[in-house]
Specification:
Rossmann fold; 7-stranded parallel beta sheet; alpha/beta
Length: 413
Amino acid sequence: MYQFISDLMFYVIKPFASVSMKRRGYTQESIDRKCGFIPEEGFSEDDNVIMFHGVSVGEAVALENLVKASRKEFADSKIVVTTGTHTGQDIAKKKLGETADLITYFPADFPKCIRRFLDKVKPKTVFIAETEIWPNFAMECKKRGINLYIINGRISDSTFKSYNALKLIFKYFLSFYTGIFTQSDDDNKKFLTIGASPETTKKMGNLKFDVKKPEGVNFNKGNSRVLLAGSTHQGEDKIVLDVFKNLKEKHSDLKLILAPRHLTRTDEVKELIKESGFEFDMRSSGRDNLEGVDILQLDTLGELGKMYEHADISFIGGSFNKTGGHNPLESIVWDKPVISGPSTHNFKDIYAIIKNAHAGFVVNSEDEFLEIADKMLTDKDFYLATVKAGTDVFAEQQGALDFVINVLKSNCL
């Protein structure tokens, strides 16, 4: 009955949804793909198709290492990656275009769309990242004998209240999932409370924390302490320079490494540094130390992740505008505390974890940025406690990638 009603609703909703999606930047091709039409050649029943779904940017980023590890581990399998948003689609194509056999949109949760999609893709195993509960998709997978898992599962407190009020319904829908694997013990309890089976619901950790330190870079910071501002966007460089100026008056050994997100802004940022009056140099000049300069502008490609090794404190850019921030784990993996502005929605779950663990800080203003940075530079115990919190949170969260690979080895292949 639910599927029958869903099919009727599809014809009612589709015209309005199409108009709305086009206004939000979706092309007709994207809309067709969400209706289950896949123009690419499909797969055969003999293919072992593993499908990964992440709705948007954060989930697509979280899946990157898992998809690449799956490609390496199961070289003969076909890999499909789906997203729900066009920004997620762009990220997936950028990061996994050479890894996946197919990258497309997840079908809308209407039986006709789902059947078209599954008839073409023919997955043997489907992994849905985080909290994507699609009843019609789950029921159709169950009918076809497709292994369906929620991985990196999480439920926010506000969402949990809504789900819990309808837990009899959710218990029914969750019964179609082969397994539900959560980020934390708390998330595990929430899924169990709304009706997930205790036999198939387990904690796996967080895929986003399965990052490795990149190889080091040839650089010597000497006896200086370093504030590294990574992936800054327009308007943030001035904030960083003002904070650095105030910190420098109190902490004479402090140096700044400033890394704009886009190299097209190199000259613009260079002019701002000149106006600040500090001695500076460019990394592209071949400089491998901070001797004789106050600021080093990082204007080389692919070195930022490696340069965090030489920071004492990191500011993560894209967070004092509407960009949504960048990945703070690139710094914390080196045991370097992070400070971010208030816009962190691209990595909101990571920031929630590191904030709760006191391994990083989200500030609302330039003054708060200055206050926290000054405290870390002044109070050694506070600084070391923050570093330890970052180390501990990594230890607690890692292992998720191996968990999923082992699920594939044990149950799906």
